[in-house]
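Problem 12. The chain below contains 421 residues. Write out its predicted structure in token notation.
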Amino acid sequence: MTEELWVRVHRGTQEIGGTCIELEAGGARLVLDVGRPLSARAGDAVELPAVRGLASGDDPSLLGVVISHGHLDHYGLLDQVSPDVPVFAGKAAAAVVEAARFFSPGPSLRPTVHLADRVPLRIGPFTVTPYLVDHSAFDAYALQIDACGRRVFYTGDLRGHGRKSVLFERLVAEPPEHVDTLIMEGTHVRASADDVPAQRTESEADVERAIAGTLRATRGLVVVAASAQNVDRLVSCYRAARRAGRTLLVDLYGVAVAQATSRSSIPQPGFPSLGVWVPRRQKLRVLRSGEFRRTAEVRGLRVFDEQIAARPDRYAIYTGSSSIAELAAGALDASGAVIWSMWSGYLSEASGTRLRGLCAAKRIPFVEHHTSGHASVADLRRLCAAIDARAVVPIHTEGAARYGDFFPRAAERRDGDWWAA
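Solution.
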């Protein structure tokens, strides 16, 4: 290949998740993300993308893997990457992923070097400049890559309606200049022209208000089924509980993630009106692992089932959906409510169907208060206009063929094809 910046997307031009991009310049190569496809079921074997040296670590031209953020569809195949291949990732993102592994086993991010907001990083012929972005994963980055006089900007996953929306507005107000290729996520670009994107996306502030409203309107216990790693949602729920005069109880998984952020602004033990409830499965995990410090450190903050049953109106619990059956055998009844605060698509899976059936059988009200971790089409159009790249390449989308309907200079690519930036 000539002295140009070459790019190929191994996975992601026609699907949401499983993202992997390879860049080549001056005989050196760099990989952005090594995601596990969302279509892969637990236990399914998924091969690494066909990147020379990624599994073996024996090709000196491969300089490393840059991970945009800590969601499995962007780093989930990292355990198959040779430990000899350097990894670049955010410090807090790596800490959150490591904390989560005790409760939800998965690869470690194991960063060789940490990314920092708008701090350029020289990796061979590549200069990588991370941009901290608003996303449902903590410490997420868009990535600017410069090499051979060309510039690529990869959005990773981002949004403009989260608790860190100021980061999106800053990116629009102060975009990277002279971008040749914008590789832009399009989760909300629909494959069908009949599926018109919503003009307005609910914000995290809207979710907070909705949760507070449900807490106020409910006499009994309210359980919020949400991801422990969605730190924005934890903040929204804590603020909503305070507004409704309730104590928010988080489980050990939520405690570990909040502490791993190393941000004093994130609700965690020591915050007023915040306690800890430990579900049975987490008690067993602590017992089997011998990591009794996890319960010892929150001993004075624990709230037990009998206390919840005595005053269910006093509490809201933030936990995973797998804990709801346990709660429904006790304090959670028809006077309470379950708030689903995750992607609604999970409700179509077997576990979601069982949960809905459980709530229906026990007449427990079931409501959804959620917003996406991904930018609306309207916000993507604002970003695209601000960056004004020569070409806009779809990724993390099922609607690549429709990019031209919304974004000027759309250039659809196929997985596996090399092209000059």
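Discussion. Residues 204-217 form the longest helix (14 residues). Students who got a different answer should revisit the alignment rule from Section 12.3.
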